Amino acid sequence: MQVKEYKPLIVAFCCNWCSYAGADLAGNNRLNYPADVKIIRVPCSCRVNPMFILRAFQRGADGVILCGCHPGDCHYTSGNYFTRRRMALLFSMLDFLGIERERTRVEWVSAAEGAKFAATMNDFVATVTALGENKRLEDLRCKK
Amino acid sequence: MNNSFLQEELIRESGVNPRKCMRCGKCSGTCPAYEEMEYHPHQFVYMVETGDIEPLLNSESLYRCLSCFACVERCPRGVEPAKLVEAVRLAAVRKQGNNSLKADDIPSLSDEETPQQLLVSAFRKYSK
Amino acid sequence: MQKISRESLVEKAIAMLQAHEVSAVLGWKKGEFDYDITPALFTDAEDLQKNFVWNDFCGANFSKYLVEKTRNIEGKILTFLKPCDTYSFNQLLTEHRFDREKVYAIGIPCEGMVDIKKIKDACGEGIASIACEEDVLKVTTLYEDAPIAIETETVLAERCLACKSKKHVAYDELLGETGEVLESNRFDEVERLEAMTADERFAFWQNELSRCIRCNACRDVCPACTCEKCVFDNPNSGVENKAAANSFEEKLFHIIRAFHVAGRCTDCGECSRVCPQQIPLHLLNRKFIHDIDRFYGDYQAGAEVGSRAPLVDYTLDDLEASEIFEGRDN
Amino acid sequence: MQRIGVFVCWCGSNIAGTVDVQAVSDALKNEPGVVFSTNYQYMCSQAGQDLIVDAVREHNLTGLVICSCSPRMHEATFRKTAQKAGLNPYMVEIANIREQCSWVHKEMEIGTEKAIILGKAAIAKVHLNAPLTPGESPVTKRALVIGGGIAGIQTALDIADAGFKVDIVEKLPTIGGKMAQLDKTFPTLDCAACILTPKMVDVAQNENVRIFSYSEVTEVKGFVGNFDVTIKKNARYVKEDICTGCGACVDKCPMKKNPNEFNLGMDNRPAIYIPFAQAVPKVATIDPNACNMLKNGKCGLCARVCTAGAIDYTQKDEYIEEKYGAIVVATGYNPISMDKFDEFAYNQSKDVITSLEFERLTNAAGPTAGKLLRPSDGKHPEKIVFVQCVGSRCDACAEKGKEYCSKICCMYTAKHAMLTRDKYPDTEVYVFYIDVRTPGKNFDEFYRRAVEEYGVHYIKGMVGKVTPEGDKLIVQASDLLADKQLKIDADLVVLAAAIEPDKSARPLATMLTASMDTNDFFTEAHPKLRPVESPTAGVFLSGCCQGPKDIPETVSQASAAAAKVIGLLVKDKLTGNPCIASSNELMCNGCSSCERVCPYGAITYVDKEFRMPDRTTRMRRVAQVNPAVCQGCGACTVACPSGAMDLRGFSSSQIMAEVDAICK
Amino acid sequence: MRKCSLSAQDTLFAKLAADATLYLPVDTADGATYQKWESGKVWSDALNTNKSPKEFFFPQMEDLMAFKTAGKTIELIDTRSETEDFIVFGVRACDAKSFEVLDRVFLTEPQDSYYANRRAHGTIVTVACTRPIETCFCQTFGIDAAEPQGDVSVWKTETDLYFNANTPRGEALLQKIEGLTEEADASAVEAQKEQIQKVLKKLPLKDLTTDGFGGDKTEALFDRPEWKTLSEACLGCGTCTFVCPTCQCYDIKDFSTGNGVVRFRCWDSCMYSDFTKMAHGNNRLTQVERFRQRFMHKLVYYPANNDGLYSCVGCGRCLAKCPISMNIVKVMKTLGGKETC
Prior knowledge:
The complex is a heteropentamer.
Chain A: E1 10-15, H1 19-28, E2 37-42, H2 50-58, E3 63-68, H3 79-96, E4 104-108, H4 114-131
Parallel strand pairs in A: 1-2, 1-3, 3-4
Helix pairs in contact in A: 1-4
Chain B: H1 4-14, H2 26-30, H3 41-50, H4 54-57, H5 61-64, H6 70-74, H7 81-94, H8 106-109, H9 116-126
Helix pairs in contact in B: 1-7, 3-7
Chain C: H1 6-18, E1 24-29, E2 38-42, H2 45-51, E3 52-53, H3 63-72, E4 77-81, H4 83-94, E5 103-107, H5 116-123, E6 127-133, E7 136-141, E8 148-151, H6 158-161, E9 173-174, H7 188-195, H8 198-209, H9 217-221, H10 247-261, H11 270-274, H12 282-296
Parallel strand pairs in C: 1-4, 4-5, 5-9
Antiparallel strand pairs in C: 1-2, 1-3, 6-7, 7-8
C-alpha cells in the first residue's frame, strides 16, 4: 500500500499593503513555496480576529500564519502594534492549553520582501509538516 | 594588531559601545589630563573600536587618566570613554609575565607588623 | 468571621433608605440554609432586618448587577463592596457600563469567604446548620449530634487564599478599614502549569474542559462579560453554539471567553466559584493577566477608572509574538 | 442567493501555463450559486471585459469572481467592468491565481488544485458581498492655518490665491515667526526682513485671509471637510480695528523694564508694545503682567495719549467658533534651553549666546542696532568661537539634548562666521564642528567660501568646556586632526543650539488626533509619499512642526501643503472608501474599546434612545463610525468583544467563509 | 429478594459488564460522576452525581442526521444506529422518577426514536438513599427514597447488597447474576427503610408541599408580583436546567462542516435569551418571563398535561449548583402554600 505523503494545510492572513504585496512580489520573481499555503487578504493584520485563527484550525488547517507590515510601517499607523499584542497573548494561551506553539506564527513581511515571504512560507510549511496533522485543535466533524 | 578577543572583553567589561562614538572629540576637548596623555580619550574609543589595543596596553596614558569622568558626563552619545580607559587599565593590570613584584620577594619585604590587607593591595598594584 | 458586623451594615442601609438618600439596597439575602445566600434588592427596613445577611458566605460580586439595576431603578442604589468587588466596580465604570451617580458605594472589609465545597469535604454532606464564629465554623450535620468545629482558615475559598488586595479602590464611604494591595501567590498555579510539558498541559486542560456543560454560568456571572449580545449567543457571529460538540468547541468557548476579558478581567474569581463542574476557569484569566504583567508591565484592571487596557494599547518596542517563549523550552 | 459568474483568465500562458484553466472553470461551475463559468485568454482586455458585461446581462449575474492576477493589479479594472454591466462595483471578488498560484508553483496538477480552492474561497466571499456605496460629506471651503511663521504665511497665501478663505491663528501679537528675527538668510545672504515683510503685508491685505494674532486654538471637533474649531483671542487690551500702530503709547508707557521677547531678552520693552516695526497686525498689545493699570488700576497713561481711543483695559478673552474644511499645522520650532549645558557656561556668562541671539545682535533692528558688541560690556569681540551641534545628535541624556540632527545649524553658522569676517575682518572666527553637513543647492559652495574666502577657522573637534576668566572666555577644545587640545581665549562664544518643536504642538496634536513621534514632531501620513499630510484626514503639515528644515524647504513644504488643501477644498463633496467599519448599535456596549484603538479618531460615542428587544426603551451609549474619517483598517472590529463592530467588504462572516472554503 | 455480599461487588460488576456496558457513579476530585465501569473503578456512595443520569437517554448533544454536499448535489445520511445494551447502576429514587417525566415527553406519539432507542436498551438499577442530605426534597413529590423504582431496586447495607426486580427487564438482569446472588429475606432491608424514614423526617425541607401548584393554577400564579423579586438576581445561565434530571428542552441546529451539514440537537435552556427564538424574535423577552416559565412548566403546565405529575423530582441539584442560590424551593415557598390559593 502506498503511503500518501502528508501535506499540511496552511492558512496565511496577509495585510493588503505590505505582506499581500510581498506575496505578489514573490510571484513576480517566481519564487517557489508550497501550494499548501493559501492566502487570505485582509486590509490590515489588525483585522484578524483570534476567532478566525481558531476557525481555521477547526476547519482543518494545520498551521496559521499572520503576516503584516513591519512595526512602524503600518499603512494605518498602528494596526500591527495591536496585532502584535493580541497574537502574543493568543499564542501564549494556545501554548498554555498544550497546543503546539509552532502551529501559529506572526511574521512581518514588507512589500519589498518577496524573497522573505517565500522563505518564510517554506520554513513554516516545513515546520508544520514536521509536526504532522493538527490533532489538538481539530473538529472531527470537519474531517473528510 | 587586531585583538578581537581582548576587544570583546573590554567592551563587555566596560559596558561601553564604541560604535556609538561619532568622533566629535568632546571627551578630549574636556579632558584635564589631555596634555599628559599619549593617547587621548577619543583615541581610546577609536582604537578599541578598531581593535588596535596593544599600544594602549603599553602606554603610560592608562595611568594619566584621572578618572574624573568629565568625558563620561559630557559625551553627547553616552559612550563613556573613562569606563573604557578603566577597562584597558584592568586588562593591563591582569596581564601576566612582566610583574614587577614576584610573590617570592614578599617575605623579605614584610615584617610581623605588616597588615594582610596591605600585602594584598601592594601585590595587586605592583604586579602589573 | 467578618470584622464588620451585619448589624452595622443593616443600620447604615436602613438609615439611608429612610433618609431617602437611596431607594434600594443591593445586598445578600438569607437562603434556605445557612450558606445559600442570594443577591437581592432590598427596599424596606423590615426586609433588611429580617433577611439581610453578612457572613463568611457572602462571596457573590454585585458589581455586574449595577449595569441593569441602575437602569431600572429610580434613584440611587446602595451597594456594599468588598475590596475585590471594587475592582470590578471600577472596571465597569471605565467601560461606561453604569452611571456612577446612581450608586452609593460603601466599602466594607473582607476577611475572606469560605468555600461550601470545602466544608462538605471536611464534614460530609447533610449540613443542617453552620454558625460563623471567630476563626471557627460550627457545623451541625443531619447525622451527628454534636456540631463539628472547623477552622475558618482551612475552608477559605481558593481565590481568597490568593487574595490580591484588601484595598478598596472605589467607594463613597468606608465602613471599617481598608487594607493594602497584597503580595499574593495567585500566579503559582499558572506557573506550575507553564512548567509542565505541552503534552501534560494538553492532558490537564482536556480533562478539565471536557467536563464543561456550557451552562454559561462563568460568562453570565462575570462582571467583565456585559455585552448586550454575547458572540456565543449570536447566530451571525460564526461561533455561536449552545453545547460543545467536541473538545474543539470546548476550547473555542473558553479561549475566546478569556480573550474577550483579557486586560479587563480583575481576577475576582467568580467564574470558578459558580462553575457547577468545578473547572478552574480562573486559571485561563490569570494566564492572560500574568502574561500581560510579564510582557507589558504590571497592570491591574479596575485599579483606577479610565486606565487603558493592555489590549487597546501598545508601545513601539513590545515583545514580538515570536519572543514570548524565549527562555521557556517546554 | 447570489447568481455568481466565474471568469478564469489565462493571462496568456502566465496562468494557463501552470493552471488548467478549463478544469478550474469547470470545477467552479459546480459550486452552489455559480450560474456561469468560463475562461478567456485576457480577461482584462477589452474583449475580456465585454465578455463579462455580456455574461452579466445574459445570466442576470449578481456577483462576479474573477480568477486572475493580483487584485492589486486589476481589482479597480474589474470593478469598473462590473459597474459598466450595471452591478455595484463591490460585487466583485478576485481570486489571485497568478502571483500567488501559477507563478509560484510549477506542476500543473498542484497549480490547478490550488486555483480551484482560491476560486472557491472567492465564491464563498462573494456570496456574502453586499453593494457598497461610498459615503459623502460636504466640504467647508475654508482652511485654518495654525502658526503664522513663514510656513503658515506661505501656506495661507497659496490657498488664498486659489480663491479659498484662510484663517491664520498666531499665538504671538504678530505673525512672522522665527524668520522675522533673522538677519540674513543663507546661502544668498539676502536680508530676511526684506523677503519676509512683503509676504506679511500680502497676507494681511489678502481679502481671503483673516489673521487671528495673539490667539490660540482651544478645541477641535469634527473631521475632514467639517472641522469645528474654537479659537481663543487673548485680550490685548487694545482695540485691534482702531489702533493705528502710531506708537505714541509705547513711547509714553512708564513701565519700560520688561525683557523684550523679540530680542530674546537682550533689551527691554515697555508694558505696552509693538514687537517690531513691521509687525502684522501693527497694533499695540498690553502685557498684563507688566501693566500697572491692569495690575493695580493706577496709571492709564496710554489711554490718555491714544488719540484713536484704542486702549480698552476691560477687554476680555474672546472665543470664536469657526468651521473649516482643512487644517494646516505650522507651529514651528524653538531653540532648546541651554540650562543643562553647564560646560558651555551659558548661564555664567552673558557672552555665551545662542545663534538666534547672535542673529539679533547682528540685526540692524536688534538691541545693538546691528553692531556686533559683546552683551557683557558692549565691546567689540576680537575672537569668536562658534560651537556646533549643541544638543543635537545627542542621545546620552534625553532631557539634555536631542538625538536628531537639527539640520540648519551648519549653514547658519557658516553664515554667521562669514558675515562676521566680512564686516569685521580683524575678528578671529573659529568654528568647532563634528561634521559639516551642507546638502542643498549652493550650500557647500557657501560653506567653502566661508573657509576659503573669509578665512574662518574650521576645526574638527568639539568644545569640551568654556570657562569665564576675567573678561575672556577660555574655550577648551580638541582639534582632532592635529591631535591637540586647544585653549582659546575667546571674547564671544556662540552656541548652535538644537531646535525642537514648539511646546504648543503636543496639546494641539491631541486635539487634532494627529500622531506625533517621540520628539514631538508631527508624523506624516507616509514618510516618502505623503510627507505633508498627517495620518488624520484633513490635517496637513507645514514647516518645522514636521521636522527641522531651512527656509527654502519650509516654503516648499508650505506650498505643497497648500496644494493638498486646495485639492481638498476644491471638492464639493468628499467620497470615502466604502470598505469601512460600522457599528451595530443594538449590540454595542459603549465600552470604548474600539475608540481606543482607532488611529483616526473616527469613532465617537453618542447617547441614543433605543427600543430594546425586551420592549423597553433605553438610553444607551453607542459607538458611531464617521465614514468620512474611517480608513477601514479593522482594528476596532477585533477590539470589540461583542462583535458589534464589523468591516464592510471584509466582514467577519466573509473572512470566515473564505477560511471555511480554503480548509474544506 | 436476592442478596449478594458487598465483598463480591467487583465480581458482580464484572458479570454485569460482560455483555452490556455498565455505568455507575464514581468519586472524582470534582464530585461523583457516572463512569463506565472497568476493573478498579469503585462505586461511589455519593448521593447526587454532578450531572443527572438523564444524559444516558437524552445526551447533551446528539446527531440526528447529516447531509453530504458536493458542488450542487446534496445527499441525506441517516446517522442512526442501534444502541448497544447498557446498564445504569446506582440511580437514586429521585433520578429514577425523572425517567417517567422524560418518557411522557419523548415516548408519547410522535415518539422520539432517538430517545426510544436508548430507552429500549438501557436497564436502570436504582439504590435506596441511606443518607439523604439537606437539599433533598423528593418527599414533596411523593417519592420514597427508601423504595427506589427502576428495573431493579438495590439496598446497600453494611455487609450486603439486596436486589429486587420491578420489571421484566429487571428480572432478566437478576437472572443474569443469579449465580452470584442468593435468595434473602427482607428484614435487613426493612430495617434500613425504617432508618431512612427517620432521617427523612429530620430533613429541613420535609415540610415543603406542592400546595398551591398543579395543572389548574395558571391563572392564580402567572401574574404574581413575587416573580419579579424571585428572578431579580437570576443571571440567566443554564446551570439549573443542565443539572436538572427532568429538564428536557432541546434545540436543533445545523453545523456546516464544509463538505456537508450535521444536524444535531443539544440541550437548551428556557433561561437563555435566545431560547425558542423564532422569526419574530423571542417569546419571552425578559428574565422574569423566562424564570417564570421554568417553574410554571415544572409545577403547572407539565402536571396539566400529564395527569398531575410534577416535573420536579426533588433531587436538590439546582439548590447546590445555582450560582446565586435561587431555586425551586425558594419559589415554592414564596408562591405556594395552602393559604395562598
